Sequence to fold (349 residues):
Amino acid sequence: MTSTTDRIAEIERDALAALASAEDDASIEAWRTRVLGRSGELTGVLRGIGGLEAEERKAVGAEANRAKQVLEAALEARREAVRRAALASAEADALDVTLPGRPVGIGRLHPVTQVRRKILDVFERLGFQVIEGPEVELDEYNFGALRIPEHHPARDMWDTFWFDEEVDGKTPLLLRTHTSPMQIRHMQSHEPPIRVAVPGKCYRYEATDATHEWMLEQVELLAIDEGISMANLKGTLEEWARQMFGPGRKVMLRNSYFPFVEPGVEVAVDCFACPGDDPACSVCRGSGWLEMMGAGMVHPEIIEAAGYDPERYTGFAAGMGVERVAMVMLGVSDIRDFHANDPRFLAQF
Ligand code: FA5
Fold:
């Protein structure tokens, strides 16, 4: 009796160990046939019971049935574990084509770009051709040819970044402080009538504040023809301002000085950030106005230096700050926000 029950215990122990390493349905089925099948190990023991003494038969029979139940339960548990493992790995590998895609962040044009395009759009419709010029400029074009000789006080207003290199040993290179050098370049290579709008970046050695940056964009205007007067300048700028800001915004032209125009004016728009008389206002400082551009009638000496007859041709020029226009259009009260690169600011426009 002892030897048969030992044999049952041995079969049970070995079978449980073998079952634990069966990893798929096929090896589980092979295990079932080998252990519990018709000619399986345990079945063989049960068959032999018939030849035993009645008392021993009862004890061995009970032991064999218990082992059979344990093994059958283990078989079911193993089948379930393997099924679950297969399902989990199938789920991990699965591509669920019904899931929504990950959202792609859509970029947009920088607010200054949007406003520059709008400015140029209006001027193009008013008959101006858009051209561009170099940001690295010769001293001669940025200052000299614009009637700002060395030691002229206006140079202080437009201090900039200089390069060590020199061209022909005398005309140092700089980052242009305004787009006005393109007046000279264009006049030197074209004949009147001229109507151009010149967008581009400019650089200044500047103490920055809410309305001043060290890098700024300008759009320059130049119109040269027979019979051009101050009235054309005023009419062009007022029509441009109306299209940009709408009829509700006030535009003021006041007397100003730039060496390359005569007479010269400054164009300002009424303050959008305060009622117009708040001395603490960072946009207008209580003046009620935000300066947009300088402008004026092209100086006759510049007309003459270009090789045009100053008795026949006159013209006007203007240079506006694109960020300043953007401040008014978009209601931005600190110019430094435009290039601070904060997506929370930029995403608003
Ligand atoms: C000029 O740059 C002249 N070239 C304008 C001009 C052109 C006058 C043609 C006459 C004829 P001004 O330095 O004032 O002028 O600058 C023109 C405009 O650029 C200003 O009205 C302002 O809108 C903008 N601007 C000037 N400096 C800054 C700055 N640091 N940051 C932002 N915008 C500026």
Remarks:
- The longest strand covers residues 215-226.
- The domain at 111-346 is CATH 3.30.930.10 (BirA Bifunctional Protein; domain 2).
- DSSP finds twelve helices and ten strands in the chain.
